[in-house]
Structures are given as C-alpha cells and as structure tokens.
From TrEMBL:
InterPro entries: Gamma-glutamyltransfase, GGT_ssub_C, Ntn_hydrolases_N
UniProt feature coiled coil, ranges: none
Name of the coding gene: Ggt6
Keywords: Glutathione biosynthesis
Gene Ontology process terms (BP): glutathione biosynthetic process
Family according to the record: Belongs to the gamma-glutamyltransferase family.
Entry protein name: Gamma-glutamyltransferase 6
Record field: catalytic activity: glutathione + H2O = L-cysteinylglycine + L-glutamate; an S-substituted glutathione + H2O = an S-substituted L-cysteinylglycine + L-glutamate
Native species: Dipodomys ordii (Ord's kangaroo rat)
UniProt-listed Pfam families: G_glu_transpept (PF01019)
Oligomer and partners: Heterodimer composed of the light and heavy chains. The active site is located in the light chain.
MF terms in GO: glutathione hydrolase activity
Length: 361
C-alpha cells in the first residue's frame, strides 16, 4: 500500500490527526466494485468562529465499516508523531515567520513565543495523551465525550456538547468511455466536478481547459492517497479552512481548531476522484486523483483528468515507475497526488515532484 501526505502542510496534518479538521473521503473496494463517500456531516460550531472537531469519529466510522486491523493499532503511528514531533520544513518555517505564532504556542513556537525555525522539532504531548485515550476507549462515543469535555473546559462552555455524526453513502458516479468516475456528493465540490467533466467530454474535440487566469493559491487542505495491488483505493482530504485554522490551540488537548466562515458549509476544496475501468475486466486500471492548494479545485481536477483521458496510453506507460513523474498540465501551485493500479502493480506519484513522502511502495 502506498501512502502520501504533503510535507508542506504540517500544521494542517497535525490538526487532521487530532480530529479537528473537516474530512471528506472516497473509498473504492476492488472486490465489490463499489465506491463509498465519507463525510464528517453538517458543519457545527463549537463556539463562534470555531469548528467542532469531526475527523476522529469520521475515521472511526470508516474503520468500523471497512477496517481489518484493531483500532488501537491504527492510532500508534499518529500518537508517536504527536509525541516525538516532526521537523519544521522550509514552507512551514516561512509561514510562521511571515504570519507569527499567535494562538499556535507552544506547538509551533519557543518558550519566548518566537516561531520555530527550519529544522526545529514541533511536538504535541497533549495530543499524544488524547490519542492514547482514543485508542483505549471501549467505544468512540466515550472518546468523544472525553475530548469534548476538555474542549468545553478550555473554552468556558457549558456541557453537554453534541459529538458530530459522520456518514457513509454511495459515491456519485459518471460513466465515461474509459470506465466509471466516482467522487463525493454535495456539499463537496464533487457534483460541480462531474458537471464540468461531462460538459467537456460532450464537445466534439474535448481538450483540457485553460488554467484560471487568477488562480488563488492557499494551503487550505491536507491530502492522503493509498492504493493496494488489487486496486482498492482510499483518498482522504481535510481542511481547517486556512493554513492555521482558527489559530486556537486547545491547551488541554493539543487540538488546533478549524475556523468557520460563511463559505465553510460548502467544501469547495474537496472533490477526490477515482476512475475505474470496465467492471467486466478484473485487471482494469484504477486511477485516483486528490489535490490541495487552491479553491479552484474543480477546474484543476478537470484539467488533470482530461489530460489523462485524452493522451495515448501504451503498455510502457502502465508499468510501475520508481520515481514520481511531473504532470505539466497541473495549474499553479497545486499539490496533486495520483494513485494508480494496473494488474498487480500499484504506483503513487505527485505534482510537484518530490513534494510528498511515499511509503509502502
């Protein structure tokens, strides 16, 4: 299985693991041929401008439905990451230097409040404690009550607070000559993505649309892609709505809360996409795309997929490559992950090249 997370989105990755961010997921089961969408549910406020944590119950629901390993074992890695920390890379160091550490201490600053610099290590022992409790709790509801109780205490709120209700539902589908496309339903950008693709493919000579003239770029989401050699694929994308979310770091839990805006109800940053070849072909290709870095997500994804659909493929192109390949069709400063499976081979690549660590290949 290949897993990839953009290294430049460390503040968002921390919140993704802590259950703070809003999450969308897309899972394709190669055995059944079905694709399922995961959502954290309707946007809920913990306090004015602060989003209620939703990732942890959403991921637990996904595990309950499709997981095989013990839940406690799956949290070992995130717990170690929180306890031992990660090294601040150049993009994060630059963002901290430019934007300051207001609300982000002690996670991303020194004792005197100055931001961590390049090569320094950011640790989150409070988060590690929360994740250990989550691993040992007999039920996810008990985990949620403990987490919400701590957050309520930090914010001076009266309990009880309602734990988010994530859901799993069939993914949206669109038949194309090359197979079937799957993506997430509304309020994600999935329906808009399929509409753009369908309109483009109806033209006599379809071609990738030009990049937007004013392509906004912002580190608003974190992305992860996994694929196994059977073609089963999981895509996850999460967001704090901005690079550092609400800039409120819960002192009791280490959770960096996301900020709520007027646009928060519509997840324009979320439209993971999976293309499955003919269901009658047991060795049909499976291609998945997930991107971050811009609110113009549907245009970027439409362009990337059309480039793939319209280019001639050869047997050589299906072979698993040892290094990720750059895709010149991607617009602007966008991070794009591509996970593909052909026969018994799996391959994960990224744009820009070298942006993301790859494991398990």
């Amino acid at each position: 299985m290949g897993i990839s997370v953009p290294s430049s989105l460390k503040p968002v990755l921390v919140a993704f693991i802590t259950a703070s961010a809003m999450v969308w997921g897309l899972f394709y089961n190669s055995s059944s041929g079905n694709s399922t969408a995961l959502t954290t549910g309707p946007t809920q406020a913990l306090a004015p401008g602060l989003g209620l944590p939703g990732a942890l119950p959403a991921l637990h629901l996904l595990h309950t439905r499709f997981g095989c390993l013990p839940w406690s074992r799956l949290l070992v890695g995130p717990t170690m990451l929180a306890q031992e920390g990660f090294v601040v890379d150049a993009p994060l160091a630059s963002a901290l230097a430019a934007q300051g550490t207001r609300g982000l201490c002690p996670l991303l600053c020194h004792a005197d409040g100055t931001p961590l610099g390049l090569g320094m290590r950011a640790t989150n022992p409070k988060l590690a404690t929360v994740l250990r409790r989550a691993a040992l709790a007999p039920t996810p509801d008990l985990t949620g009550k403990v987490l919400l109780s701590l957050l309520a205490k930090d914010l001076g709120l009266e309990e009880p607070l309602a734990w988010p209700r994530p859901s799993l539902e069939p993914a949206l589908q669109l038949s194309v000559p090359q197979g079937i496309l799957f993506t997430t339903p509304s309020p994600s950008a999935g329906p808009e993505l399929l509409a753009q693709l369908e309109a483009a493919l109806r033209t006599p000579t379809p071609s990738p649309a030009p990049c937007p003239q004013h392509l906004q770029t912002a580190l608003i989401s974190s992305i992860l892609a996994t694929v196994d050699n059977s073609g089963s694929t999981l895509l996850l994308t999460s967001s704090l709505n901005s690079a550092f979310g609400s800039r409120y770091l819960s002192p009791s839990t280490g959770v960096l809360l996301r900020n709520l805006t007027a646009e928060s109800a519509h997840s324009a940053w979320a439209c993971p996409l999976i293309l499955r070849g003919s269901l009658d072909d047991t060795e049909a290709d499976v291609l998945s795309l997930v991107a971050s870095g811009t609110p113009n997500m549907t245009t970027v994804m439409t362009r990337a997929l059309l480039s793939h659909l319209l280019e001639p493929h050869t047997q050589h192109q299906h072979q698993v490559q040892q290094e990720p390949t750059e895709n010149p069709s991607t617009c602007g400063s966008v991070t794009l992950l591509q996970a593909a499976a052909h026969a018994e081979h799996a391959h994960v690549s990224s744009v820009p090249r070298g942006c993301c660590p790859f494991q398990g290949l």
